Amino acid sequence: MEKSTYPEFAAAQPYFDLVRESLGNRVEGEHFFDVVTDETVYEVLYNLGWPRIIKGRTDLMEAFRRYCEEVELQAADNLVVHAADNARIFIIEYEVHGTILSTGAKYDNRFCSIIAIENKKIAHWRDYMDSHSAWMALAQPEQDGRHK
User: Is the Cβ–Cβ distance between 108 and 96 less than 8 Å?
Assistant: First the structure.
Protein backbone atom coordinates (compact mmCIF):
# COMPACT_ATOMS: atom_id res chain seq x y z
CA MET A 1 0.00 0.00 0.00
CA GLU A 2 1.34 3.40 -0.99
CA LYS A 3 1.64 5.78 1.93
CA SER A 4 -0.95 8.55 1.83
CA THR A 5 0.41 12.06 1.98
CA TYR A 6 -1.29 15.32 2.72
CA PRO A 7 1.32 18.01 2.01
CA GLU A 8 -1.05 20.90 2.76
CA PHE A 9 -1.14 19.67 6.38
CA ALA A 10 2.64 19.44 6.88
CA ALA A 11 2.51 22.01 9.72
CA ALA A 12 0.63 19.47 11.88
CA GLN A 13 2.53 16.35 10.78
CA PRO A 14 4.13 15.69 14.19
CA TYR A 15 0.64 15.50 15.71
CA PHE A 16 -0.65 13.21 12.96
CA ASP A 17 2.36 10.91 13.34
CA LEU A 18 1.94 10.70 17.12
CA VAL A 19 -1.77 9.89 16.86
CA ARG A 20 -1.17 7.27 14.20
CA GLU A 21 1.61 5.70 16.32
CA SER A 22 -0.62 5.66 19.40
CA LEU A 23 -3.33 3.59 17.69
CA GLY A 24 -1.00 1.08 16.03
CA ASN A 25 -2.71 -1.79 14.23
CA ARG A 26 -6.06 -1.07 15.93
CA VAL A 27 -6.89 1.15 12.93
CA GLU A 28 -6.35 0.82 9.18
CA GLY A 29 -4.76 3.61 7.18
CA GLU A 30 -1.37 5.24 7.02
CA HIS A 31 -2.23 8.86 7.86
CA PHE A 32 -4.55 10.37 10.47
CA PHE A 33 -7.01 11.38 7.73
CA ASP A 34 -7.06 7.78 6.49
CA VAL A 35 -8.37 6.55 9.85
CA VAL A 36 -11.31 8.95 10.11
CA THR A 37 -14.57 8.64 8.19
CA ASP A 38 -17.55 10.72 7.16
CA GLU A 39 -19.19 9.55 10.40
CA THR A 40 -16.31 10.40 12.76
CA VAL A 41 -17.21 12.87 15.51
CA TYR A 42 -14.31 15.03 16.76
CA GLU A 43 -15.28 16.84 19.95
CA VAL A 44 -13.18 19.50 21.66
CA LEU A 45 -13.92 20.51 25.24
CA TYR A 46 -12.36 23.96 25.11
CA ASN A 47 -13.25 27.20 23.37
CA LEU A 48 -10.29 28.62 21.48
CA GLY A 49 -11.51 28.97 17.93
CA TRP A 50 -12.36 25.36 17.05
CA PRO A 51 -15.95 24.25 16.69
CA ARG A 52 -16.98 22.24 19.74
CA ILE A 53 -18.12 19.34 17.54
CA ILE A 54 -16.79 18.50 14.10
CA LYS A 55 -18.60 15.79 12.15
CA GLY A 56 -16.98 13.93 9.32
CA ARG A 57 -13.66 13.75 7.57
CA THR A 58 -14.25 16.75 5.26
CA ASP A 59 -15.05 19.18 8.07
CA LEU A 60 -12.19 17.82 10.18
CA MET A 61 -9.77 18.38 7.31
CA GLU A 62 -11.04 21.95 6.94
CA ALA A 63 -10.50 22.59 10.67
CA PHE A 64 -6.94 21.27 10.43
CA ARG A 65 -6.34 23.32 7.28
CA ARG A 66 -7.11 26.46 9.29
CA TYR A 67 -4.96 25.17 12.18
CA CYS A 68 -2.01 24.72 9.81
CA GLU A 69 -2.38 28.34 8.70
CA GLU A 70 -1.96 29.45 12.32
CA VAL A 71 0.40 26.96 13.99
CA GLU A 72 3.44 25.02 12.84
CA LEU A 73 4.41 22.08 15.01
CA GLN A 74 8.03 21.04 15.34
CA ALA A 75 7.35 18.05 17.61
CA ALA A 76 4.76 15.95 19.39
CA ASP A 77 5.99 13.77 22.23
CA ASN A 78 5.61 12.43 25.76
CA LEU A 79 3.00 9.97 24.54
CA VAL A 80 1.24 7.79 27.08
CA VAL A 81 -1.37 5.34 25.78
CA HIS A 82 -4.07 3.64 27.83
CA ALA A 83 -6.41 1.04 26.31
CA ALA A 84 -9.86 0.39 27.76
CA ASP A 85 -13.03 -1.53 26.92
CA ASN A 86 -11.19 -4.38 25.20
CA ALA A 87 -9.08 -1.90 23.19
CA ARG A 88 -12.10 -0.20 21.67
CA ILE A 89 -11.27 2.96 23.63
CA PHE A 90 -7.86 4.61 23.79
CA ILE A 91 -6.84 7.44 26.07
CA ILE A 92 -3.74 9.20 24.86
CA GLU A 93 -1.76 11.83 26.73
CA TYR A 94 0.78 13.85 24.77
CA GLU A 95 2.42 17.21 24.21
CA VAL A 96 2.90 19.35 21.12
CA HIS A 97 5.60 21.95 20.53
CA GLY A 98 5.55 24.54 17.82
CA THR A 99 5.24 28.15 16.76
CA ILE A 100 2.31 30.54 16.37
CA LEU A 101 2.88 31.69 12.80
CA SER A 102 1.37 35.17 13.11
CA THR A 103 3.68 36.20 15.95
CA GLY A 104 6.56 33.74 16.09
CA ALA A 105 5.59 32.92 19.70
CA LYS A 106 6.58 29.53 21.08
CA TYR A 107 3.68 27.11 21.51
CA ASP A 108 3.83 24.19 23.95
CA ASN A 109 0.70 22.39 25.02
CA ARG A 110 -0.51 19.22 26.74
CA PHE A 111 -3.48 17.13 25.67
CA CYS A 112 -5.55 14.18 26.75
CA SER A 113 -7.72 12.60 24.08
CA ILE A 114 -10.26 9.81 24.39
CA ILE A 115 -10.67 7.88 21.16
CA ALA A 116 -13.36 5.32 20.33
CA ILE A 117 -12.51 2.83 17.58
CA GLU A 118 -15.10 1.05 15.44
CA ASN A 119 -14.40 -1.06 12.36
CA LYS A 120 -10.69 -0.13 12.48
CA LYS A 121 -11.47 3.61 12.18
CA ILE A 122 -11.83 6.48 14.64
CA ALA A 123 -15.54 6.75 15.45
CA HIS A 124 -15.34 9.42 18.17
CA TRP A 125 -12.62 11.70 19.50
CA ARG A 126 -12.94 13.77 22.68
CA ASP A 127 -10.12 16.23 23.25
CA TYR A 128 -8.98 18.04 26.41
CA MET A 129 -6.06 20.46 26.48
CA ASP A 130 -4.26 22.96 28.65
CA SER A 131 -6.37 25.94 27.56
CA HIS A 132 -4.29 28.38 29.58
CA SER A 133 -1.12 27.36 27.77
CA ALA A 134 -2.78 27.83 24.38
CA TRP A 135 -4.25 31.17 25.37
CA MET A 136 -0.86 32.40 26.62
CA ALA A 137 0.82 31.46 23.33
CA LEU A 138 -1.91 33.11 21.28
CA ALA A 139 -1.78 36.28 23.41
CA GLN A 140 1.97 36.78 22.92
CA PRO A 141 3.09 39.87 21.00
CA GLU A 142 5.11 39.45 17.82
CA GLN A 143 8.53 37.95 18.50
CA ASP A 144 11.62 39.93 17.38
CA GLY A 145 9.38 42.45 15.61
CA ARG A 146 8.66 40.00 12.82
CA HIS A 147 5.30 38.96 11.51
CA LYS A 148 5.15 35.73 9.53
Answer: yes
